[in-house]
Every structure is written in structure tokens, then in C-alpha cells.
Known about the structure:
Order of helices and strands: HHEHHHEEEEHEEH
CATH architecture of the largest domain: Roll
Distance between the termini: 70 Å
Helix content: 40-55%
Number of domains: 2
Strand content: 15-25%
Structural class: alpha+beta
Radius of gyration: 25 Å
Strand order of the largest sheet: 1-2-3-4
CATH topology of the largest domain: PH-domain like
Number of strands: 7
Largest sheet: 4 strands, antiparallel
CATH class of the largest domain: Mainly Beta
Shape: elongated
Amino acid sequence: MTPTATEPPPTGSQRTRPPRLRASPPYRRLAEGLTGETSADEAAARAAGMLPAELLQPGEIIILLLKPSAWFILLAPLRALTGIVVLAMAVDIANTYMGMGLSRQNTLLAALTILLLRLFWQFLEWLSRVYVLTDRRIITVAGVIRVRVFETPLQKIQHTNLLFSLRERLFGLGTIAFATAGTAIAETYWLMLHSPLQVHQKIVQTLSRYRH
């Protein structure tokens, strides 16, 4: 019998690479806006992890797939968080001068618990939000208990607005508003995005290219 040749173990540059993720429908067709520096398969896996498959139409191309900045968890409920802190301070002052029988430790513990619960809810809200731009539609997915899906064809987008609140400007964020009528009323908002100018430019380019 002829001895079977065995391959030498990989060394140096011959090290084996892990298998690449395989794209599956309907996430195979991805535009350059989503893939960026990653491969199409990796981008497809990312899309599959963020979007339900039934949300996309056959052959639909994803141009942008975004979430709010992680700062959304802290900045969106900023007024509520500030109110909780102010209320805790007021209770502590009232307890000091009026003898309400509350210990400062219990007051601080209660305020901290409420703060953490509020932040946890906002984290769930951040997880639920997905913003999608395809070659056909604008899609906004949001909602923790009741999921809300807003979608409209690109042809119905009349104008977009780029908004910057004070807290967004401090962190380099911005919000994009979409209107389907010739009014100042927006139907959906993409909140607290990283690189809002670049995202808005991509949206304008997509509208010019695919809106017929």
C-alpha cells in the first residue's frame, strides 16, 4: 500500500482562519453604507441580529442600519434623572428641618434605586430602537413592551431636518426628522445619532438616487 501523505501542521503565515459567517436571505444584498470596513457576510449577520427577516422585502438593499448612540441611555431621560436627584435632596432637607423620621441613608438608597431602574428602562428602550434606510423605504423600529414600526416609501419623503439639541451638541450627536407632507410636522425621528452630518448626507444621496 502507498503511504498516505499528511499535510504538515500550519506554521507562521499558514495558520488556519476561523470560518466566515455565511449570509442568508434576505440579508445577502447589502450596500456599501452598511458593509463599510466589514465583509458583506459579517454585515449580513449584523443585520440578521438587529432586524426580523419578515421586515425586509425580497431583493431590498439595506443602505444604513443604525441605532442611537449609547449616550441615548443617559441623555434621553436626563430631565427625569435630574428630577429624581432634586426630589431626593428636597426630601433630605425637609427631613432635616421638619424631623420626618427618614434617615439620609434610606433616602439616598431609594433615590439610587429609582435612578437605576429608570436607566435600565432606558437601556431596554435603546436596545429596541433600530433605524433602517433601504433603497425603497425608511424604517423606524422602537418600543419595549409594544413595538412600533414606522415605514414609508422613499417616494413619500418630502423633506428631512437635521436637529441638534444642546445636550446632543455637547456629545457630537444629532437627530434626523423625516416628514412625508409639505409641513414642518415630522412623522418619525432618528434620535441621537453618531456622525449625524454624514448620516444625513447619505440619506440625501439615497433619496436622490432611488426616489423616482
